[in-house]
Amino acid sequence: MGEVAVKYKIMCNPDVDDADADKIANSMKSLASEVGEVQMVETKPLAFGLKFVEAHCVIQEGDGTVDIFEDAIRAISGVGEVEVLEIGRL
Question: Which CATH class is domain 3-89?
Answer without folding.
Answer: alpha beta
